């Protein structure tokens, strides 16, 4: 039998996050704080589990993505690797300066401090994909017979405007 691969994907009304952000542009331009109702889609490619004849249990994939989006839902998304932003934790607060000028102060519990250079949908997709990959590999390490070759995450910030990041696991 020819060796093919399957692709399964999940996009659901509850795998979303409503978060605030702003991005920095080239030069001295920086957006003001605003929010999006972000939607996500995750797709996994691979071979079938011989026992169950599925690539991955949909329930497992949905629960995994739900956990990851819940971590950043209803928060201010802040990119720790942005050279123009100075993001500092001070007690229960996070202060944000842009090119040295103080701009915002948020309660720490309302922030998601992310290891990315800008909170573009590209970087959010890459971040979520990396997290999903780590979780899937951890599950595989715990005796889960997964044969996953590729994982792909799409993040949409408003209708028809999205980025997809795709990563090979092998
Ligand atoms: Zn935006």
Question: What would you say this structure looks like, in words?
Answer:
The protein has helices spanning 58-72, 121-141, and strands at 6-10, 16-21, 34-46, 76-79, 85-90, 93-98, 101-107, 111-114, 148-158, 161-168. It is an alpha+beta fold. The strands form 3 sheets. Strands 1, 2, 3, 9 and 10 form a 5-stranded antiparallel β-sheet that branches. Strands 5-6-7 form a 3-stranded antiparallel β-sheet, with no helix packed on it. Helix 1 (58-72) packs across helix 2. The site of zinc ion has 4 residues, from strand 3.
- Ligands bound to this protein structure: zinc ion
State Rg: 18 Å
Q: Which percent bin holds the helix content?
A: 10-25%
Total strand segments: 10
Q: What is the typical, i.e. mean, pLDDT?
A: 93
> What is the count of helical runs?
2
Q: How are the secondary structure elements laid out?
A:
Blueprint: E1 6-10, E2 16-21, E3 34-46, H1 58-72, E4 76-79, E5 85-90, E6 93-98, E7 101-107, E8 111-114, H2 121-141, E9 148-158, E10 161-168
Parallel strand pairs: 4-8
Antiparallel strand pairs: 1-3, 2-3, 3-9, 5-6, 6-7, 9-10
The chain binds zinc ion.
Zinc ion (ZN) binds at residues 21, 34, 36, 157.
């Amino acid at each position: 039998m020819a060796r093919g691969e399957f692709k399964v994907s999940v996009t659901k009304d509850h795998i979303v996050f409503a978060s605030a952000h702003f991005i920095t542009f080239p030069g001295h331009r920086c957006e003001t704080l605003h929010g999006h109702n972000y939607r996500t889609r995750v797709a996994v490619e691979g071979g079938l589990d011989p026992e169950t004849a599925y690539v991955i249990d949909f329930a497992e994939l949905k629960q995994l993505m739900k956990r990851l989006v819940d971590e950043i839902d209803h928060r201010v998304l802040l990119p720790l690797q942005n050279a123009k932003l100075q993001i500092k934790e001070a007690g229960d607060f996070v202060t944000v300066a842009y090119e040295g000028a103080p701009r915002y102060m948020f309660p720490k519990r309302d922030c998601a401090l992310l290891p990315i250079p800008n909170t573009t949908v590209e970087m959010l997709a890459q971040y979520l994909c990396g997290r999903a990959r780590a979780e899937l590999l951890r599950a595989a390490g715990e005796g889960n017979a997964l044969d996953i070759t590729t994982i792909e995450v799409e993040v949409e910030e408003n209708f028809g405007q999205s980025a997809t990041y795709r990563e090979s696991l092998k």
